[in-house]
Each structure stands twice: as structure tokens, then as C-alpha cells.
Amino acid sequence: MENSNTIEKRTTVFTSEELLAHWQGHRALTRRTIEAFPEKEFFTHSIGGMRTFAELTMELLGIAAPGMKEIVVGNTEKLKEHFDHGNKKEYLLALWDKDTEAINTYWEQLKDEDFSKNIKLFGEYEGTVISSILYFIDNEIHHRGQAYVYLRSLGIEPPFFWER
What we know:
Elements (H helix, E strand, L loop, with lengths): L15 H21 L2 H6 L8 H21 L15 H19 L10 E4 L3 E4 H25 L11
Antiparallel strand pairs: 1-2
Helix pairs in contact: 1-4, 1-5, 3-4, 3-5
């Protein structure tokens, strides 16, 4: 019989599928937040020297799907946070939708044992697969919160945060 001090007890809180659904719920809410912005203000409005929501959206686009691709495929590429968008919100929304599908595709290739692997994303950010994915989600929530402040300052009611 093993000593009880050497037995590791693990509890699964989320399945991989539940975590993806949670993340995609946040992505859908962020998409609705992008849609809520008037075209001009999406690219120009900021408060206190913070980046515009278009700039924040480009950061999110540069991290999520490319990060998932790197996790699954293993090819390291430099983080790209700027895109030629021609000041067209619809262009960034189309990229958002494309990345949402890419995340789903890469996610299907993850195995449960992959989540604990150590990685170095974009050649510079060390952690595990799960810590990186949680960062993707946390970073998106953070930037969406900034966008909510922007929308309120423009007199626009943001989407309800609980409707994911």
C-alpha cells in the first residue's frame, strides 16, 4: 500500500471542451463589443493615453490563434500586433471570425497531456500550455474591460458581460 503522502490527487474542474466553450464565449462577447463601436471611434477613441480598441483588438488577433498554432504545430514566430486594416472595422471582424475557427481547429489537435507541457510562446514567453491559454483569455477580458469604459464614455451601453 502506498503512503498517503505520495499519492497525488487531481481534480478535473474543466474538461478541455468546457474550457474551449468558455473561451469562445468570451470571444463572442468581445466580437459583440467590437461591433458596438462606431467605425471612427473604434480607430480613434482612447482615454488617458491608452491604446484604441482597434489597437487592442489587433493585439488580441496577434496572440490567440497564432499562439494556438504555435502550441500545436510548434513553429515559433515573432508576435505580430499590427495589421493593415485600412481603418475598416469589418476587416478586423473578418479576421476575428477566421481566428475563431482556427482556434477550434488547433484545439481539436490538443491532447489532455499537452496542457502541462512547458513552452516558450513567440520565442519569449515561458509557461505551460494551460498557463498560456489562460493568459489569452485573461488578456482578452482585460482589454474588453477597457473597451467597455470607452463605450460608456461615448454614451454607448456595452454588451452585458454575462451574456456569453
